[in-house]
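Board notes, transcribed. Complex of a protein with phosphoenolpyruvate.
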Amino acid sequence: MKTYIVGNWKLNFTVGEASIYLHKILKTLPNYRDVDVVVAPSLIALQPLSLQIDRHKVKLAAQNAFYRDYGAFTGEVSFSQLRGLVDYAIIGHSERRYILREDDKMVAKKVAAAIRNRITPILCIGETESERAFGETADVIRDQLIGGLSEVADDDLDNVIIAYEPVWAISSSKSAKIATPDEVAEVVKLIRKVIADTYGKDLAEKVPVLFGGSVNTSNAGAYLTVPGVNGLLIGGASLILSEFVDIIETAKRVRS
Ligand code: PEP
């Protein structure tokens, strides 16, 4: 299976800065066939960046979009408008769930809208610190996974990527902690079990599962060798050229 390294730039960089940064990434990176490098700039930068990108080296992802294709939805951008511009879309990121109040129903509609528009959803799931402390991790993972996939036809499920991002490990969360590879392994195993129980073993083996949460150059290798992990979703470290490229090189080394 391919390895995915996805950089989530969040609300950082002007369009000009994003363009310069992408230029540097493209200049620095060789074409690694078995590592899919993806960057998710802000929506406003997607159009100009799509003109400068070499899709053999780097692909674009949206950080979000709206689930209806057109209509009276002031301020929204639809997956249908992003069709052709991006290959992937991050959906259900914890910042959208907890700051912007997106629930599983909305996440499910967005996952379906992405697939309908030939965009691969990267469905983010993960428990908060208190949910983990109360022993609710397995329930949260099951609910977010089944809820997020509830509007996807069985035939389309092999077009989905899952990202396990424990909220307590994301660098922007208050007092972020580093997840141990064992903690990641346990939840990734659970994710595959939930998929196997719900959709069958074949799919459970095929769906790429990424890990995200304070990934940096010194821990990327350890996460990439966790059984069942097919790549990384990276926030902070993806904004620093040397870190991002180093993580991509680690992925190439570790997984080949
Ligand atoms: C994220 O927000 O998706 C993320 C993983 O951020 P960070 O790598 O900064 O923890």
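The radius of gyration is 17 Å. The first helix runs from residue 15 to 28.
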